[in-house]
Amino acid sequence: MKILALCGSHRKGKNTSRMLQTVLREAASLGAETELVELTDYEIKECISCNKCLRRPECVITDDGMNVLYGKLLRADGIVIGSPVYFGNVSGRLKDFIDRSRPLHMVTNALDGKAGAAVVHAGLRNGGQEMALQILHYFMLSHGLQLVSDRRPGEAIVNVGTMATMFDSYDGIQMKFKRGVEEDAVALASCRSLGRNIVAFLKKKCCR
Ligand SMILES: Cc1cc2nc3c(=O)[nH]c(=O)nc-3n(C[C@H](O)[C@H](O)[C@H](O)COP(=O)(O)O)c2cc1C
After folding, report:
1. What atom of ligand 1 comes closest to residue 89's alpha carbon?
2. Of 130, 132, 186, 197, whose CB neighbour count within 10 A is largest?
3. Is the whole model's pTM more than 0.85, yes or no?
């Protein structure tokens, strides 16, 4: 069972990446083969909207990192995408990746049936996490991915959706912020649940 995590943060190894690492660590402890990809390590040119991929399942742009990423997506059984929240949306780099994934979708729907999950990290308490999550879920549903949630039967419902915040407290004048996602216990618990749920989903479905 292969689980691929894609980090859309423009800052490698930071909060979004560490959320994904938490998901993957949990999945790996249950036997999954995992890989974290930082999209910042790849050149991703923007989609030029030529629409050639409506007829052929390939992209006319071949001189950037997307060919490697297409291969990783195709080989994965489960795909987890993480984004920082930028103006209530996903990061620009991740949006370019999303647009360039179209050749996998229009003719063959090559990712259909894989497991999908998303995590987001924002600065504010209510900083657009839910919108960014919805955008990622919509993207995954467009590709036919089967969404896996962070919910665990029997656990307290403190959150729906794997989202984190830097916000710590507000004394009426000033906001205080966490030093990092490691101080967001709800988010990390959600990441761990997600890792377990993806493995459980894939075990039930097909994979070892
Ligand atoms: C261009 C930009 C836009 C941002 N927009 C928002 C926002 O709409 N809401 C929010 O809560 N935080 C916003 N932030 C803060 C980031 O979401 C926050 O720093 C995030 O946790 C960074 O994740 P990272 O540590 O993985 O880079 C923005 C940051 C940048 C750089």
Report:
1. 8
2. 132
3. yes
Pick from 9, 10, 87, 94 the residue to mutate for probing ligand 1's pocket: most ligand atoms within 8 Å of its CB: 87
Residue 118 backbone dihedrals phi, psi, to 5 degrees: -135, 150
Q: Is 175 a pocket residue for ligand 1 (Cβ < 6 Å)?
A: no
Right CATH number for 2-205 from 3.40.50.11540, 3.40.50.360, 1.10.760.10, 1.10.418.70? 3.40.50.360
What is the residue with the minimal CA distance to atom 12 of ligand 1?
A: 123
Could you tell me whether strands 2-7 and 33-38 are parallel, antiparallel, or unpaired per DSSP bridges?
parallel
Closest CA to 37 of 99, 116, 113, 97: 97
For the chain, what are the domain ranges?
Answer: 2-205
Per-residue pLDDT of 34-44, as tens digits, reads: 999 999 999 99
